[in-house]
Amino acid sequence: MHAMKVLLVNPEFPDTYWSFRHALPFEGKRSVFPPLGLMTVSGLIPESVERRLVDLNIERLKKSQIEWADMVFITGMLAQKKSLHEVVDRARKLGKRIVLGGPYVTSTIEELPYADHIFQGEAETTLPQFFEDLERGTTKRTYKAPERPPMAIAPLADFGLVNMKKYSCMSIQYSRGCPFSCEFCDIIEIYGRVPRTKSSQQVIAEFNELNRLGWRGPLFIVDDNFIGNKKNVRLLMPDIIEWQKKHGYPFSLLTEASVNLADDADLLAAMKEAGFRRVFLGIETPVEESLKEAQKPQNRGNLLESVRRIQSHGMEVMAGFIVGFDNDPEDIFERQIEFIRESAIPMAMVGMLNALPDTQLWKRLEREGRLLGADATGNNTIATVNFIPKMDVDTLIAGYQRIMRTIYKPSEYYQRALDSLQRVPQDVPEAHQYHGFKAVTAFLRIAFKLGVLDAERREFWRFFLEAARTHHDRMTELLRHAAMAYHFRKLNESYGDT
After folding, report:
1. What whole-number distance in Å separates Cα of residue 68 and Cα of residue 53?
2. SS3 content of the chain, % helix, strand, coil (to 5)
3. Averaged over 185-213, what is the pLDDT?
4. How many other C-beta atoms can be found within 10 angstroms of the C-beta atom of residue 97?
5. Comparing C-alpha atoms, which of 57, 58, 84, 81 is closest to residue 73?
6. Residues 6 or more apart from 391 whose CB is under 8 A from it?
7. Measured over all CA atoms, what is the biggest interatomic distance in the chain, rounded to whole angstroms?
8. Does the structure show a pLDDT above 80 at 17?
9. pLDDT tier at 186, thresholds 50, 70, 90
């Protein structure tokens, strides 16, 4: 009997804030992050099973790859829906057994694509069960995790399954869940309000494995709120610090956290020492009433001061913003632009409020009879709303587009980047992948495209020369900002916004 063969497929993401599609060619990469979900799933599959992974964000899915497999495992988020359906159709035509899982399948309320087996929730307990059932010939169509599994049983992700050279960043997961209850957030509906974490030993094992495989550079801890369980994070920090020191800081760490990180001086100091270089915050809005409406009390207080405090600990702040709350005043668009400018957040992700299925927001709008048929796309860069807002919808869309046009004008982005470099001190050079020839190539690509061919070349040289004069020791960061400025501007142009 031949060994069973499983093909793991990660569908394609559309072009969004997080895709960085216009920035990646400068560094010769195809995608930002590898499909950590599928690499984790691979860690749960019995060793006797042969496996291959295809990430449609870096390569095309060949017919021969589908033909090779006995079963095709497909994951996906809401934003990957279109591609996911296409993969299912192709695998089905070739008569393959189709297994679906992931956030989209778990929380969608629409009709799911065809599948032989569907996994809802986290797979740590259900996937091993499925393989046992498979041997006995007693498989079920739906496997639903009875409860949220402890992270202690999460496997070591199968990092060797991907071609690391194609990605600009590696990722690991430390925790699932978040202690807050923001009305618009689906994370707490999927992963719960009690953050579960891995042990320090598990995290260090993943660091060791990535180090062994030769990874150097950015490492994203993908938690939706890294500091959700502060007690455990405090226990983890000394181990990361010790590991990074011992290995010469091969990873520059980035993560997502709630704004209350700013209130914890000890944790900020520890994160700096551990080599955290960037942190993504859900700031949402500078308007108190809208924060109250969103059930986000942890963001009230002086937000600009909070951002500055985090920056002063060597971490660049990236952040998410939302317009379209019921309590948004007429001047919300100017206030958001002003806040983003003053806070020196180069990478500001602004989205229009959309109701995601099953969230508290969805339920409230449904009660109020304000939901519209179209479901949220999961793409935070398109000007659409799926409910009837309090503000006139055309005013809302025009205001949103004005924010995007303004904050991603090269002069605006570059000024924030300079301000950010100024506020974010770096004592130790950041781990990256650009040494010697690679660094020169990346620089020449950027200089030619942005400094010669591009209509905004004067802004590029003004930024570059000023930044090189004041921060000549941080060239990788400068080039990253130039590439990002280009990505965001292109993204806006592709939405017919400029």
Report:
1. 12
2. 45, 15, 40
3. 94
4. 17
5. 84
6. 324, 328, 330
7. 69
8. no
9. confident
- Grade residue 106 by pLDDT with cuts at 50, 70 and 90: confident
Q: At 246, phi and psi to the nearest 5?
A: -65, -35
Q: How many whole angstroms separate alpha carbon 188 and alpha carbon 182?
A: 8
Cα separation, 82 vs 86, in Å, equals 7
- Are 464 and 456 within 8 A, CB to CB? no
Annotate 145-179 with b (16+ C-beta within 10 A) or e (fewer).
beebbebeebbebbbebbebebbbbbbbbbbbbbb
DSSP string, 347-400: SEEEEE--PPTTSHHHHHHHHTT-B-SSPP-S-TTS---SB--SS-HHHHHHHH
Q: Are strands 175-176 and 196-197 parallel, antiparallel or unpaired?
A: antiparallel
Query: How far is Cα 219 from Cα 210, in angstroms, rounded to an integer?
Result: 10
Its pTM stands at 0.93
| Mean pLDDT confidence for 21-30 | 87
| 3-state SS assignment for residue 73 | strand
Distances 82 to 18, 104, 377 between C-alpha atoms, Å: 17, 11, 10
Task: Please provide the size of the chain in residues.
Answer: 498
Could you give the strand order of the β-sheet that contains 251-257, starting from the edge strand earlier in sequence?
170-172, 217-221, 251-257, 276-284, 316-323, 348-352
- Taking all residues of the chain, what is their mean pLDDT, rounded to a whole number? 92
Handedness of CA 404, 479, 451, 33 (dihedral sign): negative
Euclidean distance between CA atoms 259 and 295, whole angstroms? 14
Q: How far apart are CA 410 and CA 455, in angstroms?
A: 11
Cβ–Cβ under 8 Å, residues 431 and 275? yes
At a CB cut-off of 8 Å and minimum separation 6, what does 292 contact?
Answer: 300, 327
Distance (Å, rounded) from C-alpha 312 to C-alpha 303? 14
In tens, the pLDDT along 350-387 reads: 999 999 888 999 999 999 999 987 555 555 556 788 99
